[in-house]
Structure formats: C-alpha cells, structure tokens
Automatic annotation (TrEMBL):
Name this polypeptide is given: FAD/NAD(P)-binding domain-containing protein
Domain called FAD/NAD(P)-binding: residue spans: 2-279
InterPro entries for the chain: FAD/NAD-bd_sf, FAD/NAD-binding_dom, Ferredoxin-NADP_redctase_2, Pyr_nucl-diS_OxRdtase_2_AS
Organismal lineage: Bacteria, Candidatus Spechtiibacteriota
Disulfide bond is among the record's keywords: yes
Keyword terms, alphabetized: Disulfide bond, FAD, Flavoprotein, Oxidoreductase, Redox-active center
Highest taxon, organism lineage: Bacteria
A Pfam family per the record: Pyr_redox_2
UniProt-recorded Gene Ontology molecular function terms: oxidoreductase activity, acting on a sulfur group of donors, NAD(P) as acceptor
Gene3D superfamilies referenced in this protein's UniProt entry, alphabetically: FAD/NAD(P)-binding domain
C-alpha cells in the first residue's frame, strides 16, 4: 500500500513528487512521458528563475529533479487507465496490467491536443497534417503551410515555421488573436505570417499529400480555399481526466473541479493539479504550484486526517 500514487510527468506531478519525497511519503509516480506539453516548445521564457530553456531540456530537468529524490518510485512508459475507489483507499490500474494500491492519488495528467474533427484531418495525419511544429517544421521547408488556431500554441507554431516555410497563413476562428500580446508581436514582426480572421476550417483535401484547406469566411459566409501542402492544427487541448471519470466531479469540459486552496477534488483522498483541472490559467509555474499545494495537503491529511 502506497501513501500516494502520482499520475503524470509534467510540472504538476514532478513538483508533487519532489515535495512528497521531502515529507518522506511512500510514493510512486507513473507517467507515459516526461516533461508535459511544453516539451515541444522551442524555448520556455517564463519558467521562474530560468531566462530561457528549450522544451526538451525542461523535460530533462523535471525528470532529473524527481530522480534525485529518495523514496520516490518511478514508472515510465506506462499509462494509467483507471482509478477505482476502495474502502481504505484507491486502486490505480495501468495499461501494462499493473495495479497500485494507495491511500491517496494525485492526478497531474494534464491535457492533450484537441482535434479539429473535419474531413481529411485523419486521412492526412502525417501526410501534411501535423500537430507539433517544433518536431515537424523543417519537413515543410519552402512549402506553403496553414496554421489553424490563433492562441499561444498557434502563434508559437507559426513562429517555428518562419525559418522554413515559403508562406504561412494563420487561421483564427474569431476576429481576434487569443495568444499573449508578446507572442502576437513576434508573429507580426516576423513579416511572414498572414493572419486570416473569422476562418472556420471545413476540410483538408489533397492527393497522396495535403494540397488544400477549405474554410468558410464567417463574416461573409463565403467558402474559400488555400493551396497549402501542410496544415498545423493548434486549437487547444482536452483534459486527460478519463481515468477518474465518474469517480470525481468534472466540469462541462471534463476538467477536474478542485478547491484551489489545497488542490483537493470532490472525493476525499484524490487531489489534482495543473492543466487537467478547472484552473483558468494553464501555465507551467501554476501547475508546479498546484503539485506543491497538493503534496503538503496530502501529508497533512495522512498525518492528521481530514483537515480542510
Ligand atoms: C506548445 C505549447 C507551449 C507552451 N509554452 C508554455 C510556456 O512557454 N510557458 C508556460 O508556462 N506554459 C506553456 N505552455 C503550457 C504548459 O505546457 C502547461 O500549462 C503545463 O504543461 C501543464 O502542466 P501539467 O503538469 O498540468 O500537465 P502536462 O504538461 O500536460 O503533463 C501531463 C503529464 O501526464 C502524463 N500523462 C497523461 N495522461 C497520462 C496517463 N493516463 N497515465 C500516465 N501519465 C499520463 C503526460 O505524459 C505528461 O507527462 C505551453 C503549452 C503548449 C501546448
């Protein structure tokens, strides 16, 4: 019986693990990969105390920090499928068929890329449709590409493509970009990104590879098309909360509802932090803070009981 099972290997879970080790909890961290979503970022510039760190380095530092702790067991390359409530705690079951019994659970499973759900998206996945600009931008050297999404992820994808693509069209559904003003400035200053507002993507088409993107101009209602050989889809994320579905309360987006004072969920014994929760701000520093709050509260709970 563990004191704590930590699900995930992003900033929320890594922070929870480091603090759990300092409290000498008997804990296991289970993650399919290290680093979380910003692992694909070319450079993270707001991880406090660090001016700029490439995403893959960031992932390495989180893993190294957790591995340097005594008493935290680490399982990588496995995925949690289900958390079940038992009389005296929880059973956490993974894809590999292993069950972990624990008194408490921390869910730091973050979020995954949202799909557009339009015709051609699945068919051309890997044949011009891409979801990771840091990984795939060089493949689109001298090609015309479209980026769907005007939030931070879309703006960063456009910037990743600037040194490679021949032309970049960024399609935003509404009449305003949603990303940080500083990132918007970078995109505008690049001089290479054409922003198309009010664009509703309808279809991705082609032959063996992507050749065009069809969209509706939501202002005029007119159907339009772009001749492109690549489409980067950057339209946000969906919370990875499947494993606790039905066990704890989530909002209409599937985000776990937490008490932001201590990261507790609706079920005593389960905590959650970071992007999988209903916190409106999705950031590395915030996720790490959630993990810290949870570990400290879990320790109090295990030592002195249900003190909220
Ligand atoms: C392209 C991009 C750039 C970004 N840039 C920045 C930035 O510059 N600064 C910033 O502050 N924020 C940035 N963000 C946001 C930031 O990445 C997130 O807020 C942060 O990663 C959330 O951390 P988390 O630990 O909650 O979850 P995540 O980072 O999503 O980590 C979740 C972890 O859980 C694991 N996992 C998921 N499901 C399971 C499961 N079933 N079983 C086991 N493990 C599982 C995953 O492998 C991963 O390790 C960026 C996001 C994106 C997409």
């Amino acid at each position: 019986m563990y004191d704590l099972v930590i699900i995930g290997g992003g900033p929320a879970s890594a922070a929870c693990a480091v603090y759990a080790a300092r409290k000498k909890l008997k804990a296991v961290l289970i993650t399919d990969e290290w680093g979380g979503q910003s692992t694909v970022s070319a450079g993270i510039e707001n991880w406090i105390g660090t001016k700029n760190i490439p995403g893959f380095e960031f992932a390495k530092t989180l893993e190294e920090h957790v591995r340097a702790q005594n008493g935290i067991e680490i399982i990588t390359g496995d995925k949690v499928l289900k958390v079940d409530g038992k009389n005296n705690g929880f059973t956490v079951s993974t894809e590999s068929g292993t069950d972990y019994e624990s008194k408490t659970v921390f869910v730091g499973s973050g979020a995954s890329r949202r799909k557009l759900g339009v015709l051609g998206e699945k068919e051309y996945d890997g044949k011009g449709v891409a979801y990771c600009s840091t990984c795939d931008a060089p493949v689109f050297k001298d090609k015309a590409v479209a980026v769907v999404g005007g939030g931070n992820a879309g703006l960063e994808a456009a910037m990743d493509l600037v040194p490679y693509a021949k032309t970049i069209k960024l399609l935003e559904y509404s009449d305003k970009l949603k990303g940080d003003p500083a990132t918007q400035d970078k995109v505008r200053e690049s001089g290479k990104v054409e922003i198309i507002f009010n664009a509703e993507t309808l279809e991705i088409a082609g032959d063996k590879f992507v050749r065009e993107l069809k969209y509706k101009d939501r202002a005029s209602g007119e159907g339009k098309k772009l001749d492109v050989e690549g489409v980067f889809i950057e339209i946000g994320s969906i919370p990875n909360s499947e494993m606790v579905k039905g066990l704890i309360e989530t909002d209409k987006y599937g985000e776990i509802i937490v008490d932001h004072k201590n990261s507790r969920t609706s079920r005593l014994g389960i905590w959650a932090g970071g992007d999988v929760t209903d916190d409106p701000f999705k950031q590395n520093n915030i996720s790490a803070g959630d993990g810290v709050k949870a570990a400290l509260d879990i320790y109090n709970y295990l030592i002195i009981g249900d003190k909220r």
